[in-house]
Amino acid sequence: MRERDQTRKKPFSCVGYSVPRIDALDKVLGRAVYSEDLSFPDMLYGRVLRAGIPHALIEEIDAREAKAMDGVVCVLTAKDVPGINRYGVAFQDQYALAEGKVRYIGDPVALVAAETEEIAKDAIKTIRVRYGKLPVITNPHEALAEGAPRIHDKGNLLLHTKIRKGDVEKGFGEADVVVEDTYKTHVVDHAYLETESGIGMMDKQGNLVIWSANQCPFRDRRQVAVVLGMRENKVRVIRATTGGAFGGKDDVTVEIHIGLLAWATGRPVRLVLDREESFLSQTKRHAIEIWTRWGARRDGKLCAMEGRVLGDTGAYAGLGAFVVKKCGIHLSGPYFIPNIKVDSYSLYTNNIIASAMRGFGVAQAAIAHESQMDELAKRLGINPLNFRLINALDVGLSTATGQVLYEGVGIKATLEKIKEVVLNHPSLQSYWKDLT
Amino acid sequence: MSKEPGKTLLKMKVNGKAVEVMVNPTWTLLRVLREELRLTGTKKGCEQGDCGVCTVIMDGRTVNACLVLALQTESKEIETIEGLGTADQLHPLQKSFIKHGAVQCGFCTPGMLLSAKALLEKNADPTLEEIKRGISGNLCRCTGFVKIIKAIQNVHR
Ligand code: FES
Ligand code: FES
Fold first, then answer.
1. What is the pLDDT of residues B43-81, one digit of tens each?
2. What CA–CA distance (Å, rounded) separates A261 from A271?
3. Where are the domains of chain A?
4. For the whole model, what pTM was predicted?
5. CATH of the structural domain B8-83, one choice from 3.30.450.40, 3.10.20.30, 1.20.1250.20, 3.30.460.10
6. CA of B120 to the centre of ligand 1 (A)
7. Chain B residue with minimal CA distance to A279?
8. Backbone angles phi and psi of A208, in degrees to 5
9. Could you tell me which of B21, B157, B34, B39 has the C-alpha nearest to residue B99?
């Protein structure tokens, strides 16, 4: 940890120093309160029945056995939702409880609240759902295909974003070398060590209070209120200490279900997803397929770039449209390219929902643009780091969307620093020579 | 303590204190610590022995509390994070974790600290490899492990 430099004229208290986390003490003592650490007298345990089937019509739900079980306090399905059975941070295309149809294996179909966790688990298993199977779309190509089955009424295309800068045809006309390739990335789970969890209850003044592992309590409460048919100011979502999120707790996870069960039973309800359920039902990093073509001149300057980004956002939007859009916007990387044409498509499939995760689409773009840069450098016979320096964005240059950068562009300084370290590092010097 | 049907009396020591608690034979040690004794510093991440956030020390050895049945702890000594140090008297490992930025979300921290403690008790000056092996049962998804390893290496520096 860097000690404070006493000679500085105007010492800041935090900026420029390593300071201990404000909550580190509670955490090393084991007394930081995560949502599952809370419990209340009379508390019930919630459990969600998931579809377990990727695309189907719900023909019948028979929960009679579960309802009759000792210790089961309530069983809820879509018809019990008191407000509007829709949510979603940006597009309200998701159902608190599946209505008529399921679109991925993790779709919630029914909720149970019971006196113990064991009873809740057993009760879920007794609920019989009759499904009418529908054809399944497992990748963006199938989603785009002519005559593809529609996952949502509006079709399978969630968002198409066009990036247009300069004149790509003219740009490629100037190119001495052109590199074209397709890159595919796969789904990644955030795998925070704390699964999605929370606890909630109706208080004596009729407020619904929920503590949960979340990233955006105010966005969550807005969505809870709509589904519960409550005024927003009667819903409180409190962020308990959260055991990792990385974007995976950006969307609503357990909050609406907790709200529904607490409202229906009038008792505190704890709902914690087990690890397997978290993997099978919660949001992921997008699998993205990127086709892209880059042109450069013999002097090392990039002159044109074209791309097509197909993002598999799974069954519901979450923040997916923006992730895929961002992947397209950043496909040119931290480089100045005068002529750009990129089309990105965010597509519904019957896969698990993809939404926010660290990097928000840019990590996928980086795999493509850095591979393109290496390949171009090789074909041009230019050292790959120098090639990046030639093309790095700088003050006064414009990004893919035409934004002219006025300040705070650190890529060149970063690359220079890397070069300095490499050139002064005994075992890396020969590596550098091989590249040159 | 009154007898409850299906439950058995368990006697053990937790953080130096004798404890008596009625347990269901199917319950794990994790369940008893968290839900019956309300020692919630021991975390639950997978309930199948994969993540290590439930690590506690049982008779000097680390165990995954989610894999130990409560009744297996009869007459045993259990150490949890609540017994490691106090706010006024932190354990050197706790200080070192704070100092080296080894704590982020904190969910792995209690288990990680106990694994480190068990390691240092057997081996006061472990090599890098030995530290890595010592915490190989504890996942951390936030820190990338580098700072945790530094904190353990520099615990007495
Ligand atoms: S909860 Fe015990 S190892 Fe994960
Ligand atoms: S600090 Fe978050 S998992 Fe280790």
1. 999 999 999 999 999 999 999 999 999 999 999 999 999
2. 9
3. 141-188+284-435
4. 0.95
5. 3.10.20.30
6. 22
7. B46
8. -95, 120
9. B157
Q: How does pLDDT run across A343-382, given as a tens digit for each residue?
A: 999 999 999 999 999 999 999 999 999 999 999 999 999 9
Residue A192 to residue B107, Cβ atoms within 8 A = yes
Cα atoms in the Cβ-side hemisphere of radius 13 Å centred on A351: 24
Please give the full DSSP string across chain B, using - where no structure is assigned: ----TT-EEEEEEETTEEEEEEE-TT-BHHHIIIIIS--TTS--S-SSSSS-TTEEEETTEEEETTTSBGGGGTT-EEE-GGGT--SSS--HHHHHHHHTT--SS-SSHHHHHHHHHHHHHH-SS--HHHHHHHTTT---SSS-SHHHHHHHHTTT-
Residue ranges lining ligand 2, Cβ < 6 Å: A 193, 244; B 103-109, 140-143
User: In 10 A of CB A176, how many CB atoms?
Assistant: 13
Query: For chain B, what are the domain ranges?
Result: 8-83, 92-153
CA A421/CA A260 separation, integer angstroms: 57
- Selecting from A29, A192, A242 the residue whose C-beta is nearest the C-beta of B87 gives A29
From the candidate CATH numbers 3.30.70.100, 3.40.1370.10, 1.25.40.10, 1.10.150.120, the one assigned to the domain spanning B92-153: 1.10.150.120
Q: Angle formed by the axes of helices A384-391 and A362-380, to 10°?
A: 110
Residues of B in contact with A244 (CB under 8 A): 104-105, 107, 141-142
Shortest distance between the Cα of B130 and any Cα of chain A, in A, equals 22
User: Angle at the Cα of A413 (from A410 to A419), degrees rounded to 5?
Assistant: 140
Q: How many distinct helices (H) and strands (E) make up chain A?
A: 13, 15
Residue with structure tokens 């950043």?
Answer: A330
Question: Where does the pLDDT of residue B2 fall: very low under 50, low under 70, confident under 90, or very high at 90 and above?
Answer: very low
Nearest CA-CA partner of A95 in A51, A31, A141, A139: A51
Tell me the ipTM for this assembly.
Answer: 0.96
DSSP code of residue A241: B
Residue B133: phi, psi to the nearest 5?
-65, -40
**In CATH, what number does A141-188+284-435 get?**
3.30.365.10
Residue nearest atom 2 in ligand 2 by C-alpha distance: B105
Interface test with B, best of A25, A40, A115, A193 (most B CBs within 10 A): A193
In terms of DSSP bridges, do strands A197-202 and A208-212 run parallel, antiparallel, or are they unpaired? antiparallel
- CA atoms within 13 A of residue A22's CA, in its CB half-sphere: 2
